[in-house]
Amino acid sequence: MTLNTTLASVTERIITRSAPTRGAYLERMRAAQSNGPARAHLSCSGQAHAYAAAGPDQAALAKASAGHLGIITAYNDMLSAHQPFETYPQIVRDAVRKVGGTAQVAGGVPAMCDGVTQGEAGMELSLFSRDAIAMSTAVGLSHNTFDAAVFLGVCDKIVPGLVIGAQVFGHLPAVFLPAGPMVSGLANDEKAKIRQKYAMGEVGREELLKAEMSAYHGPGTCTFYGTANTNQMLMEFMGLHLPGSSFVNPGTELREALTQEGARRALSLSALGNAYTPVCDVLDEKAFANGIAGLMATGGSTNLLIHLIAMARAGGIILDWQDFSDLSEVVPLLARVYPNGLADVNHFHAAGGLGYMIGEMLANGLLHPDTKTVAGDGLSNYVTEPFLTDDGLEWRSGTGQSLNEGICRPVSDPFQPTGGLSRLTGSLGTAVMKISAVAEEHRIVEAPVRIFHDQDDAKAAFKAGEFTGDVIIVVRFQGPKANGMPELHSLTPMLSIMQGRGQKVALVTDGRMSGASGKVPAAIHVVPEALDGGAIAYIQDGDMLRVDALAGTLDILTPDVTKRDPATADLSANAYGMGRELFSPFRQLVGSADTGASVFGDL
Protein backbone atom coordinates (compact mmCIF):
# COMPACT_ATOMS: atom_id res chain seq x y z
CA MET A 1 0.00 0.00 0.00
CA THR A 2 1.27 3.47 -0.94
CA LEU A 3 2.07 5.67 2.04
CA ASN A 4 -0.43 8.47 2.63
CA THR A 5 1.03 11.63 1.10
CA THR A 6 0.31 13.78 4.16
CA LEU A 7 1.96 11.25 6.48
CA ALA A 8 4.96 11.19 4.14
CA SER A 9 5.21 14.99 3.91
CA VAL A 10 4.75 15.58 7.65
CA THR A 11 7.43 13.01 8.42
CA GLU A 12 9.82 14.57 5.91
CA ARG A 13 9.12 17.98 7.45
CA ILE A 14 9.97 16.59 10.89
CA ILE A 15 13.19 15.04 9.56
CA THR A 16 14.27 18.30 7.94
CA ARG A 17 13.37 20.43 10.94
CA SER A 18 15.17 18.07 13.31
CA ALA A 19 18.31 17.45 11.27
CA PRO A 20 20.77 19.50 13.40
CA THR A 21 19.53 18.32 16.80
CA ARG A 22 18.89 14.74 15.70
CA GLY A 23 22.32 14.52 14.13
CA ALA A 24 24.00 15.75 17.31
CA TYR A 25 22.00 13.28 19.41
CA LEU A 26 22.85 10.29 17.22
CA GLU A 27 26.52 11.27 17.29
CA ARG A 28 26.42 11.13 21.09
CA MET A 29 24.72 7.74 21.02
CA ARG A 30 27.24 6.26 18.55
CA ALA A 31 30.05 7.46 20.79
CA ALA A 32 28.45 5.74 23.77
CA GLN A 33 28.00 2.54 21.73
CA SER A 34 31.68 2.45 20.79
CA ASN A 35 32.69 1.96 24.42
CA GLY A 36 31.22 -1.54 24.42
CA PRO A 37 29.82 -3.35 27.50
CA ALA A 38 30.14 -0.95 30.39
CA ARG A 39 31.28 -3.26 33.20
CA ALA A 40 34.71 -3.87 31.67
CA HIS A 41 35.56 -0.22 32.25
CA LEU A 42 34.75 -0.18 35.94
CA SER A 43 37.46 -0.45 38.57
CA CYS A 44 37.63 -3.63 40.60
CA SER A 45 36.33 -1.71 43.60
CA GLY A 46 33.47 -0.33 41.50
CA GLN A 47 32.54 -3.77 40.27
CA ALA A 48 32.67 -5.21 43.79
CA HIS A 49 30.24 -2.52 44.96
CA ALA A 50 27.91 -3.22 42.04
CA TYR A 51 27.84 -6.98 42.58
CA ALA A 52 27.99 -7.17 46.38
CA ALA A 53 24.28 -7.93 46.85
CA ALA A 54 23.79 -9.91 43.62
CA GLY A 55 23.84 -13.30 45.37
CA PRO A 56 23.84 -16.16 42.85
CA ASP A 57 24.59 -13.74 40.00
CA GLN A 58 27.93 -12.53 41.40
CA ALA A 59 30.09 -14.99 39.49
CA ALA A 60 28.41 -14.30 36.15
CA LEU A 61 28.70 -10.56 36.70
CA ALA A 62 32.39 -10.81 37.61
CA LYS A 63 33.13 -12.72 34.38
CA ALA A 64 31.33 -9.96 32.42
CA SER A 65 30.57 -12.50 29.71
CA ALA A 66 26.79 -12.64 30.17
CA GLY A 67 24.33 -9.90 29.30
CA HIS A 68 23.28 -7.72 32.22
CA LEU A 69 19.83 -6.17 32.33
CA GLY A 70 18.93 -3.02 34.24
CA ILE A 71 15.42 -2.69 35.66
CA ILE A 72 13.92 0.77 36.13
CA THR A 73 10.73 0.45 38.14
CA ALA A 74 7.90 2.80 39.02
CA TYR A 75 6.47 0.30 41.48
CA ASN A 76 4.35 1.42 44.36
CA ASP A 77 1.26 -0.23 45.76
CA MET A 78 -0.89 2.89 45.97
CA LEU A 79 -1.30 3.05 42.20
CA SER A 80 -3.45 0.17 41.04
CA ALA A 81 -1.70 0.24 37.66
CA HIS A 82 1.73 -0.14 39.27
CA GLN A 83 0.95 -2.57 42.09
CA PRO A 84 1.55 -5.61 39.84
CA PHE A 85 5.16 -4.49 39.33
CA GLU A 86 6.00 -5.62 42.88
CA THR A 87 6.81 -9.12 41.60
CA TYR A 88 8.31 -8.17 38.23
CA PRO A 89 11.98 -7.87 39.29
CA GLN A 90 12.08 -11.49 40.43
CA ILE A 91 10.23 -12.64 37.31
CA VAL A 92 12.76 -10.75 35.18
CA ARG A 93 15.78 -12.12 37.10
CA ASP A 94 14.52 -15.69 36.82
CA ALA A 95 13.78 -15.31 33.10
CA VAL A 96 17.21 -13.98 32.13
CA ARG A 97 19.10 -16.47 34.31
CA LYS A 98 17.60 -19.25 32.21
CA VAL A 99 19.32 -17.82 29.15
CA GLY A 100 22.61 -17.12 30.94
CA GLY A 101 22.00 -13.46 31.74
CA THR A 102 21.67 -11.39 34.89
CA ALA A 103 19.44 -8.55 36.02
CA GLN A 104 19.39 -5.95 38.79
CA VAL A 105 16.99 -3.20 39.77
CA ALA A 106 18.93 -0.15 38.66
CA GLY A 107 16.62 2.29 40.38
CA GLY A 108 13.11 3.36 41.23
CA VAL A 109 11.27 6.40 39.98
CA PRO A 110 8.33 8.25 41.55
CA ALA A 111 4.84 7.56 40.29
CA MET A 112 1.88 9.69 41.31
CA CYS A 113 -1.80 9.23 40.51
CA ASP A 114 -3.59 12.13 38.88
CA GLY A 115 -6.88 10.54 39.93
CA VAL A 116 -5.97 10.95 43.59
CA THR A 117 -4.66 14.50 43.23
CA GLN A 118 -7.42 15.91 40.97
CA GLY A 119 -8.46 19.29 42.38
CA GLU A 120 -5.79 19.09 45.08
CA ALA A 121 -2.56 21.01 45.56
CA GLY A 122 -0.55 17.87 44.77
CA MET A 123 -1.78 18.05 41.16
CA GLU A 124 0.58 21.01 40.69
CA LEU A 125 3.48 18.54 40.89
CA SER A 126 1.98 16.17 38.33
CA LEU A 127 3.39 17.54 35.09
CA PHE A 128 6.76 18.25 36.66
CA SER A 129 6.90 14.68 37.94
CA ARG A 130 7.50 13.58 34.33
CA ASP A 131 10.84 15.38 34.21
CA ALA A 132 11.69 14.21 37.74
CA ILE A 133 11.06 10.63 36.54
CA ALA A 134 13.38 11.19 33.58
CA MET A 135 16.08 12.47 35.94
CA SER A 136 15.56 9.53 38.29
CA THR A 137 15.90 7.14 35.35
CA ALA A 138 19.22 8.75 34.48
CA VAL A 139 20.44 8.34 38.06
CA GLY A 140 19.55 4.64 38.01
CA LEU A 141 21.33 3.95 34.73
CA SER A 142 24.31 6.19 35.51
CA HIS A 143 26.11 3.30 37.23
CA ASN A 144 26.96 2.27 33.66
CA THR A 145 26.86 -1.46 34.27
CA PHE A 146 24.05 -2.53 31.93
CA ASP A 147 23.83 -3.93 28.41
CA ALA A 148 20.07 -3.31 28.08
CA ALA A 149 17.18 -2.12 30.21
CA VAL A 150 13.53 -2.85 30.89
CA PHE A 151 11.15 -0.17 32.10
CA LEU A 152 8.21 -0.82 34.41
CA GLY A 153 5.66 1.96 34.20
CA VAL A 154 2.16 2.65 32.93
CA CYS A 155 0.46 5.85 33.99
CA ASP A 156 0.17 9.44 32.95
CA LYS A 157 3.58 11.05 33.44
CA ILE A 158 5.49 7.87 34.16
CA VAL A 159 5.81 6.42 30.65
CA PRO A 160 6.75 9.77 29.07
CA GLY A 161 9.34 10.34 31.79
CA LEU A 162 10.76 6.85 31.35
CA VAL A 163 10.95 7.35 27.57
CA ILE A 164 12.84 10.62 28.03
CA GLY A 165 15.26 8.92 30.41
CA ALA A 166 15.65 5.90 28.14
CA GLN A 167 16.59 8.13 25.22
CA VAL A 168 19.35 9.82 27.21
CA PHE A 169 20.78 6.29 27.39
CA GLY A 170 19.70 5.66 23.82
CA HIS A 171 22.70 3.42 23.06
CA LEU A 172 21.02 0.75 25.21
CA PRO A 173 18.13 -1.41 24.02
CA ALA A 174 14.93 -0.74 25.94
CA VAL A 175 11.79 -2.84 26.33
CA PHE A 176 8.77 -1.46 28.18
CA LEU A 177 6.88 -4.04 30.26
CA PRO A 178 3.24 -3.11 30.97
CA ALA A 179 1.07 -4.37 33.82
CA GLY A 180 -2.23 -4.36 31.92
CA PRO A 181 -5.70 -3.03 32.78
CA MET A 182 -7.80 -4.11 35.74
CA VAL A 183 -10.75 -6.31 34.84
CA SER A 184 -13.95 -4.43 34.04
CA GLY A 185 -16.04 -3.17 36.95
CA LEU A 186 -18.85 -0.60 37.13
CA ALA A 187 -19.39 0.78 33.64
CA ASN A 188 -17.70 4.14 33.11
CA ASP A 189 -20.89 5.85 31.89
CA GLU A 190 -22.71 4.71 35.06
CA LYS A 191 -19.87 6.12 37.17
CA ALA A 192 -20.14 9.44 35.29
CA LYS A 193 -23.88 9.61 36.00
CA ILE A 194 -23.28 9.17 39.72
CA ARG A 195 -20.68 11.94 39.63
CA GLN A 196 -23.19 14.27 37.98
CA LYS A 197 -25.88 13.37 40.53
CA TYR A 198 -23.43 14.11 43.33
CA ALA A 199 -22.58 17.50 41.76
CA MET A 200 -26.32 18.28 41.70
CA GLY A 201 -26.73 17.22 45.32
CA GLU A 202 -29.03 14.34 44.35
CA VAL A 203 -26.90 11.63 45.99
CA GLY A 204 -24.59 11.72 48.97
CA ARG A 205 -20.89 11.06 49.33
CA GLU A 206 -21.49 7.48 50.49
CA GLU A 207 -23.16 6.54 47.19
CA LEU A 208 -20.47 8.42 45.24
CA LEU A 209 -17.68 6.52 47.01
CA LYS A 210 -19.45 3.20 46.44
CA ALA A 211 -19.65 3.90 42.70
CA GLU A 212 -16.03 5.00 42.47
CA MET A 213 -14.79 1.92 44.30
CA SER A 214 -16.90 -0.31 42.06
CA ALA A 215 -15.18 1.25 39.04
CA TYR A 216 -11.63 1.30 40.46
CA HIS A 217 -11.64 -2.05 42.22
CA GLY A 218 -8.46 -4.05 41.67
CA PRO A 219 -4.88 -4.20 40.37
CA GLY A 220 -4.22 -2.78 36.94
CA THR A 221 -4.72 0.35 34.89
CA CYS A 222 -8.03 2.21 35.06
CA THR A 223 -10.11 0.86 32.20
CA PHE A 224 -11.12 4.12 30.51
CA TYR A 225 -9.09 5.46 27.60
CA GLY A 226 -7.23 8.25 29.35
CA THR A 227 -3.55 9.11 29.41
CA ALA A 228 -2.36 5.85 30.97
CA ASN A 229 -3.93 3.65 28.32
CA THR A 230 -2.98 6.10 25.58
CA ASN A 231 0.61 5.59 26.75
CA GLN A 232 0.18 1.85 26.31
CA MET A 233 -1.16 2.32 22.79
CA LEU A 234 1.84 4.47 21.91
CA MET A 235 4.34 1.92 23.17
CA GLU A 236 2.93 -0.59 20.66
CA PHE A 237 2.60 1.85 17.76
CA MET A 238 6.15 3.05 18.42
CA GLY A 239 7.64 -0.43 18.88
CA LEU A 240 8.67 -0.51 22.55
CA HIS A 241 6.17 -3.12 23.79
CA LEU A 242 5.97 -6.70 22.67
CA PRO A 243 3.09 -7.05 20.18
CA GLY A 244 -0.34 -7.38 21.75
CA SER A 245 0.95 -6.99 25.29
CA SER A 246 -0.59 -3.68 26.33
CA PHE A 247 -4.06 -4.78 27.43
CA VAL A 248 -3.51 -8.24 28.91
CA ASN A 249 -4.89 -8.26 32.46
CA PRO A 250 -2.59 -8.57 35.50
CA GLY A 251 -2.34 -11.85 37.36
CA THR A 252 -2.81 -14.04 34.30
CA GLU A 253 -0.45 -16.67 32.95
CA LEU A 254 -0.22 -14.78 29.66
CA ARG A 255 0.77 -11.59 31.46
CA GLU A 256 3.62 -13.37 33.26
CA ALA A 257 4.79 -15.08 30.07
CA LEU A 258 4.92 -11.72 28.29
CA THR A 259 6.96 -10.24 31.14
CA GLN A 260 9.44 -13.11 30.94
CA GLU A 261 9.73 -12.82 27.17
CA GLY A 262 10.14 -9.04 27.36
CA ALA A 263 13.12 -9.48 29.67
CA ARG A 264 14.72 -12.07 27.42
CA ARG A 265 14.03 -9.95 24.35
CA ALA A 266 15.75 -6.92 25.88
CA LEU A 267 18.95 -8.90 26.45
CA SER A 268 18.80 -10.40 22.96
CA LEU A 269 18.87 -6.88 21.50
CA SER A 270 22.08 -5.86 23.28
CA ALA A 271 25.42 -5.24 21.59
CA LEU A 272 26.60 -8.63 22.89
CA GLY A 273 24.43 -10.40 20.32
CA ASN A 274 23.75 -10.25 16.59
CA ALA A 275 20.49 -8.26 16.70
CA TYR A 276 21.69 -5.04 18.38
CA THR A 277 18.75 -2.63 18.44
CA PRO A 278 19.33 0.41 20.66
CA VAL A 279 16.38 2.57 21.57
CA CYS A 280 17.87 5.49 19.63
CA ASP A 281 17.25 3.48 16.45
CA VAL A 282 13.71 2.47 17.43
CA LEU A 283 12.50 5.97 18.33
CA ASP A 284 13.19 7.80 15.08
CA GLU A 285 11.11 10.35 13.19
CA LYS A 286 8.93 7.66 11.61
CA ALA A 287 8.16 6.10 14.99
CA PHE A 288 6.97 9.43 16.35
CA ALA A 289 4.85 10.04 13.23
CA ASN A 290 3.30 6.61 13.81
CA GLY A 291 2.63 7.54 17.42
CA ILE A 292 0.81 10.71 16.39
CA ALA A 293 -1.24 8.77 13.83
CA GLY A 294 -2.19 6.24 16.52
CA LEU A 295 -3.19 9.06 18.85
CA MET A 296 -5.54 10.43 16.21
CA ALA A 297 -7.03 7.11 15.17
CA THR A 298 -7.84 6.09 18.74
CA GLY A 299 -9.03 9.47 20.07
CA GLY A 300 -6.36 9.44 22.74
CA SER A 301 -5.45 11.79 25.56
CA THR A 302 -4.73 15.48 25.00
CA ASN A 303 -1.86 15.17 27.46
CA LEU A 304 0.15 13.45 24.73
CA LEU A 305 0.14 16.70 22.75
CA ILE A 306 2.61 17.83 25.42
CA HIS A 307 4.32 14.56 26.24
CA LEU A 308 5.07 13.38 22.70
CA ILE A 309 6.79 16.70 21.98
CA ALA A 310 8.93 16.37 25.12
CA MET A 311 9.66 12.69 24.43
CA ALA A 312 10.75 13.47 20.87
CA ARG A 313 13.03 16.32 21.93
CA ALA A 314 14.94 13.96 24.19
CA GLY A 315 16.01 12.18 20.99
CA GLY A 316 16.74 15.37 19.05
CA ILE A 317 13.41 15.26 17.16
CA ILE A 318 11.40 18.48 16.97
CA LEU A 319 7.62 18.11 16.76
CA ASP A 320 5.06 20.89 16.79
CA TRP A 321 1.29 21.06 17.07
CA GLN A 322 0.94 21.65 13.32
CA ASP A 323 2.28 18.13 12.76
CA PHE A 324 -0.54 16.80 14.94
CA SER A 325 -3.11 19.00 13.20
CA ASP A 326 -2.07 17.96 9.70
CA LEU A 327 -2.14 14.26 10.55
CA SER A 328 -5.51 14.68 12.25
CA GLU A 329 -6.90 15.85 8.91
CA VAL A 330 -6.10 12.55 7.17
CA VAL A 331 -6.23 9.93 9.94
CA PRO A 332 -9.83 8.90 10.65
CA LEU A 333 -11.19 8.09 14.09
CA LEU A 334 -11.37 4.29 14.25
CA ALA A 335 -12.13 3.61 17.93
CA ARG A 336 -14.78 4.50 20.46
CA VAL A 337 -13.55 3.79 23.98
CA TYR A 338 -14.82 5.63 27.05
CA PRO A 339 -15.02 8.63 27.34
CA ASN A 340 -15.39 8.60 23.56
CA GLY A 341 -17.86 5.68 23.73
CA LEU A 342 -19.32 3.16 26.15
CA ALA A 343 -16.66 0.44 25.82
CA ASP A 344 -13.64 0.16 28.09
CA VAL A 345 -10.16 -0.98 27.05
CA ASN A 346 -10.94 -4.61 27.86
CA HIS A 347 -13.85 -4.49 25.43
CA PHE A 348 -11.61 -2.75 22.89
CA HIS A 349 -8.94 -5.43 23.23
CA ALA A 350 -11.53 -8.19 22.77
CA ALA A 351 -12.96 -6.49 19.67
CA GLY A 352 -9.60 -6.64 17.88
CA GLY A 353 -7.68 -3.98 19.77
CA LEU A 354 -4.37 -2.52 18.74
CA GLY A 355 -3.45 -5.36 16.40
CA TYR A 356 -6.57 -4.79 14.33
CA MET A 357 -6.05 -1.01 14.36
CA ILE A 358 -2.41 -1.26 13.27
CA GLY A 359 -3.32 -3.72 10.52
CA GLU A 360 -6.06 -1.44 9.18
CA MET A 361 -3.80 1.60 9.22
CA LEU A 362 -0.88 -0.20 7.59
CA ALA A 363 -3.15 -1.53 4.85
CA ASN A 364 -4.33 2.01 4.12
CA GLY A 365 -0.95 3.74 4.17
CA LEU A 366 -1.55 5.55 7.46
CA LEU A 367 1.52 4.19 9.27
CA HIS A 368 5.16 3.81 8.32
CA PRO A 369 5.68 0.05 7.93
CA ASP A 370 9.50 0.13 7.93
CA THR A 371 10.30 1.08 11.51
CA LYS A 372 12.60 -0.82 13.86
CA THR A 373 10.89 -2.33 16.89
CA VAL A 374 11.77 -4.54 19.84
CA ALA A 375 9.93 -7.33 17.98
CA GLY A 376 12.10 -6.98 14.88
CA ASP A 377 12.18 -4.83 11.76
CA GLY A 378 8.80 -3.70 10.52
CA LEU A 379 5.57 -2.64 12.19
CA SER A 380 3.80 -5.64 10.67
CA ASN A 381 5.00 -7.58 13.72
CA TYR A 382 2.29 -5.71 15.64
CA VAL A 383 -0.57 -7.14 13.62
CA THR A 384 -0.02 -10.37 15.56
CA GLU A 385 -1.25 -11.30 19.03
CA PRO A 386 0.27 -13.52 21.73
CA PHE A 387 -1.03 -16.92 22.84
CA LEU A 388 0.12 -19.49 25.39
CA THR A 389 0.56 -23.02 24.08
CA ASP A 390 2.01 -26.23 25.50
CA ASP A 391 5.29 -25.15 23.92
CA GLY A 392 5.20 -21.69 25.46
CA LEU A 393 4.47 -18.23 24.12
CA GLU A 394 3.78 -17.75 20.43
CA TRP A 395 2.40 -15.01 18.19
CA ARG A 396 -0.33 -15.63 15.62
CA SER A 397 -2.02 -13.40 13.07
CA GLY A 398 -4.64 -11.22 14.69
CA THR A 399 -8.16 -10.62 13.48
CA GLY A 400 -8.46 -8.95 10.10
CA GLN A 401 -11.86 -7.54 10.90
CA SER A 402 -13.46 -5.75 13.80
CA LEU A 403 -15.38 -8.04 16.11
CA ASN A 404 -17.55 -5.13 17.28
CA GLU A 405 -17.97 -2.14 14.98
CA GLY A 406 -19.46 -0.14 17.81
CA ILE A 407 -15.95 -0.14 19.31
CA CYS A 408 -13.49 -0.23 16.42
CA ARG A 409 -14.08 0.21 12.71
CA PRO A 410 -12.25 -0.11 9.42
CA VAL A 411 -10.76 2.85 7.60
CA SER A 412 -13.51 2.48 4.98
CA ASP A 413 -16.22 3.17 7.59
CA PRO A 414 -14.74 5.28 10.40
CA PHE A 415 -16.54 6.95 13.27
CA GLN A 416 -15.46 10.27 11.77
CA PRO A 417 -13.22 11.08 8.81
CA THR A 418 -10.67 13.03 10.86
CA GLY A 419 -8.74 12.31 14.02
CA GLY A 420 -9.68 12.77 17.63
CA LEU A 421 -7.75 15.99 18.31
CA SER A 422 -7.91 19.48 16.85
CA ARG A 423 -5.56 22.46 16.92
CA LEU A 424 -7.16 25.87 17.43
CA THR A 425 -5.52 29.19 16.54
CA GLY A 426 -6.71 32.76 16.60
CA SER A 427 -6.58 36.05 18.42
CA LEU A 428 -6.66 34.34 21.83
CA GLY A 429 -3.58 32.27 20.96
CA THR A 430 -3.05 28.59 20.15
CA ALA A 431 -4.82 25.73 21.90
CA VAL A 432 -5.85 22.11 21.41
CA MET A 433 -9.14 20.29 21.82
CA LYS A 434 -10.09 16.65 22.11
CA ILE A 435 -13.08 16.33 19.80
CA SER A 436 -13.53 12.57 19.56
CA ALA A 437 -16.24 12.60 22.23
CA VAL A 438 -17.68 16.05 21.44
CA ALA A 439 -20.86 15.90 19.36
CA GLU A 440 -20.67 17.98 16.18
CA GLU A 441 -23.40 20.37 17.38
CA HIS A 442 -21.21 21.28 20.36
CA ARG A 443 -18.01 21.95 18.44
CA ILE A 444 -18.81 25.63 17.87
CA VAL A 445 -19.56 27.79 20.89
CA GLU A 446 -19.89 31.57 20.75
CA ALA A 447 -20.75 33.08 24.12
CA PRO A 448 -19.77 35.60 26.80
CA VAL A 449 -17.02 34.59 29.18
CA ARG A 450 -16.73 34.20 32.92
CA ILE A 451 -13.18 34.53 34.19
CA PHE A 452 -11.69 32.57 37.08
CA HIS A 453 -8.16 32.22 38.43
CA ASP A 454 -8.97 29.08 40.39
CA GLN A 455 -11.12 26.07 39.52
CA ASP A 456 -12.65 26.04 43.00
CA ASP A 457 -14.06 29.51 42.37
CA ALA A 458 -15.71 28.26 39.18
CA LYS A 459 -17.27 25.35 41.05
CA ALA A 460 -18.51 27.70 43.78
CA ALA A 461 -20.16 29.93 41.14
CA PHE A 462 -21.89 26.88 39.69
CA LYS A 463 -23.22 25.82 43.09
CA ALA A 464 -24.47 29.37 43.63
CA GLY A 465 -26.54 29.11 40.44
CA GLU A 466 -24.63 31.81 38.57
CA PHE A 467 -24.47 29.99 35.20
CA THR A 468 -27.92 30.22 33.65
CA GLY A 469 -27.19 31.02 30.01
CA ASP A 470 -24.63 30.21 27.36
CA VAL A 471 -21.13 30.73 28.71
CA ILE A 472 -17.48 30.09 28.03
CA ILE A 473 -15.70 29.52 31.31
CA VAL A 474 -12.12 30.75 31.28
CA VAL A 475 -9.75 29.46 33.96
CA ARG A 476 -6.39 31.18 33.54
CA PHE A 477 -3.04 31.39 35.36
CA GLN A 478 -3.02 27.58 35.16
CA GLY A 479 -0.04 27.25 32.80
CA PRO A 480 3.24 25.49 33.56
CA LYS A 481 4.99 28.67 34.72
CA ALA A 482 2.08 29.77 36.90
CA ASN A 483 1.43 26.62 38.90
CA GLY A 484 2.71 23.56 37.04
CA MET A 485 -0.29 23.25 34.70
CA PRO A 486 -2.63 21.07 36.78
CA GLU A 487 -5.45 19.11 35.20
CA LEU A 488 -8.88 20.66 35.69
CA HIS A 489 -10.88 17.45 35.39
CA SER A 490 -12.91 18.20 38.50
CA LEU A 491 -14.79 20.79 36.41
CA THR A 492 -16.15 18.04 34.16
CA PRO A 493 -19.32 17.17 36.14
CA MET A 494 -20.58 20.76 36.31
CA LEU A 495 -19.78 21.44 32.66
CA SER A 496 -21.60 18.25 31.65
CA ILE A 497 -24.65 19.24 33.69
CA MET A 498 -24.78 22.67 32.05
CA GLN A 499 -24.47 21.15 28.59
CA GLY A 500 -27.21 18.66 29.48
CA ARG A 501 -29.53 21.55 30.36
CA GLY A 502 -29.22 22.79 26.80
CA GLN A 503 -26.72 25.57 27.49
CA LYS A 504 -23.94 26.27 25.02
CA VAL A 505 -20.85 25.84 27.17
CA ALA A 506 -17.09 25.52 26.69
CA LEU A 507 -13.94 25.65 28.78
CA VAL A 508 -10.91 27.73 27.78
CA THR A 509 -7.74 27.45 29.86
CA ASP A 510 -3.97 27.68 29.75
CA GLY A 511 -4.03 24.62 31.98
CA ARG A 512 -4.74 20.98 31.17
CA MET A 513 -7.87 18.88 31.13
CA SER A 514 -7.80 15.22 32.02
CA GLY A 515 -6.79 12.62 29.49
CA ALA A 516 -10.32 11.35 30.08
CA SER A 517 -11.94 14.64 29.02
CA GLY A 518 -15.09 13.99 27.09
CA LYS A 519 -18.21 15.55 25.66
CA VAL A 520 -17.77 19.21 26.65
CA PRO A 521 -15.62 21.29 24.25
CA ALA A 522 -12.44 22.37 26.04
CA ALA A 523 -9.80 24.57 24.40
CA ILE A 524 -6.82 23.78 26.59
CA HIS A 525 -3.05 24.31 26.74
CA VAL A 526 -3.59 27.92 25.56
CA VAL A 527 -0.27 29.54 24.65
CA PRO A 528 1.04 32.04 25.44
CA GLU A 529 -0.17 31.40 28.97
CA ALA A 530 -1.53 34.24 31.09
CA LEU A 531 1.67 34.59 33.11
CA ASP A 532 3.58 35.07 29.84
CA GLY A 533 1.33 37.97 28.81
CA GLY A 534 -0.86 35.94 26.46
CA ALA A 535 -4.12 37.40 25.19
CA ILE A 536 -5.97 35.22 27.71
CA ALA A 537 -4.69 37.66 30.37
CA TYR A 538 -6.55 40.60 28.78
CA ILE A 539 -10.12 39.34 28.54
CA GLN A 540 -12.77 40.22 31.12
CA ASP A 541 -16.16 38.95 32.24
CA GLY A 542 -18.71 39.53 29.49
CA ASP A 543 -16.26 39.61 26.58
CA MET A 544 -17.34 37.45 23.65
CA LEU A 545 -15.28 34.46 22.52
CA ARG A 546 -15.77 32.00 19.70
CA VAL A 547 -14.46 28.45 20.02
CA ASP A 548 -14.74 26.68 16.66
CA ALA A 549 -13.32 23.16 16.47
CA LEU A 550 -14.65 22.72 12.93
CA ALA A 551 -12.73 25.68 11.53
CA GLY A 552 -9.90 25.28 14.04
CA THR A 553 -10.19 28.82 15.44
CA LEU A 554 -10.15 30.44 18.87
CA ASP A 555 -11.02 34.14 18.66
CA ILE A 556 -11.83 37.12 20.86
CA LEU A 557 -14.84 38.85 19.29
CA THR A 558 -14.80 41.87 21.61
CA PRO A 559 -12.59 44.53 19.95
CA ASP A 560 -9.41 46.06 21.35
CA VAL A 561 -9.12 43.94 24.48
CA THR A 562 -5.32 43.95 24.32
CA LYS A 563 -5.34 47.74 24.79
CA ARG A 564 -6.31 47.10 28.40
CA ASP A 565 -3.86 46.36 31.16
CA PRO A 566 -3.39 42.60 31.54
CA ALA A 567 -4.82 40.86 34.57
CA THR A 568 -2.51 39.80 37.36
CA ALA A 569 -2.98 37.07 39.92
CA ASP A 570 -1.61 36.39 43.36
CA LEU A 571 0.26 33.12 42.80
CA SER A 572 2.05 33.05 46.15
CA ALA A 573 -0.11 30.17 47.40
CA ASN A 574 1.24 28.01 44.56
CA ALA A 575 4.77 28.24 45.93
CA TYR A 576 4.44 26.12 49.05
CA GLY A 577 2.70 23.10 50.52
CA MET A 578 2.58 19.51 49.26
CA GLY A 579 6.20 19.77 48.15
CA ARG A 580 5.64 22.70 45.79
CA GLU A 581 8.54 24.54 47.42
CA LEU A 582 10.97 22.05 45.91
CA PHE A 583 9.67 22.61 42.39
CA SER A 584 10.24 26.36 42.24
CA PRO A 585 13.22 25.88 39.87
CA PHE A 586 10.95 23.87 37.56
CA ARG A 587 8.39 26.70 37.37
CA GLN A 588 11.18 29.14 36.55
CA LEU A 589 12.77 26.97 33.83
CA VAL A 590 9.78 25.27 32.22
CA GLY A 591 9.05 25.82 28.54
CA SER A 592 5.66 26.49 27.00
CA ALA A 593 3.06 23.78 26.45
CA ASP A 594 3.57 23.73 22.69
CA THR A 595 7.26 22.90 23.18
CA GLY A 596 6.55 20.07 25.64
CA ALA A 597 6.35 22.03 28.92
CA SER A 598 9.74 20.62 29.84
CA VAL A 599 12.59 21.93 31.95
CA PHE A 600 15.12 20.27 29.64
CA GLY A 601 14.78 22.39 26.49
CA ASP A 602 16.17 20.51 23.49
CA LEU A 603 18.63 18.50 25.61
TrEMBL record:
The keyword Hydrolase does not apply. Keywords: 4Fe-4S, Carbohydrate metabolism, Gluconate utilization, Iron, Iron-sulfur, Lyase, Metal-binding. It comes from Parasedimentitalea huanghaiensis. One of its GO terms (cellular component) is cytosol. Belongs to the IlvD/Edd family. Its cofactor is [4Fe-4S] cluster. Binds 1 [4Fe-4S] cluster. Residues 69-380 form the Dihydroxy-acid/6-phosphogluconate dehydratase N-terminal domain. Pathway: Carbohydrate metabolism; Entner-Doudoroff pathway. SUPFAM superfamilies: IlvD/EDD N-terminal domain-like, LeuD/IlvD-like. One of its GO terms (biological process) is D-gluconate metabolic process. It catalyses: 6-phospho-D-gluconate = 2-dehydro-3-deoxy-6-phospho-D-gluconate + H2O. This is Phosphogluconate dehydratase. [4Fe-4S] cluster binds at C155, C222. Its EC number is 4.2.1.12. It comes from the Bacteria. Gene3D superfamilies: IlvD/EDD C-terminal domain-like. Pfam families: ILV_EDD_C (PF24877), ILVD_EDD_N (PF00920). Residues 407-597 form the Dihydroxy-acid/6-phosphogluconate dehydratase C-terminal domain. The keyword Phosphoprotein does not apply. Catalyzes the dehydration of 6-phospho-D-gluconate to 2-dehydro-3-deoxy-6-phospho-D-gluconate. One of its GO terms (molecular function) is metal ion binding.
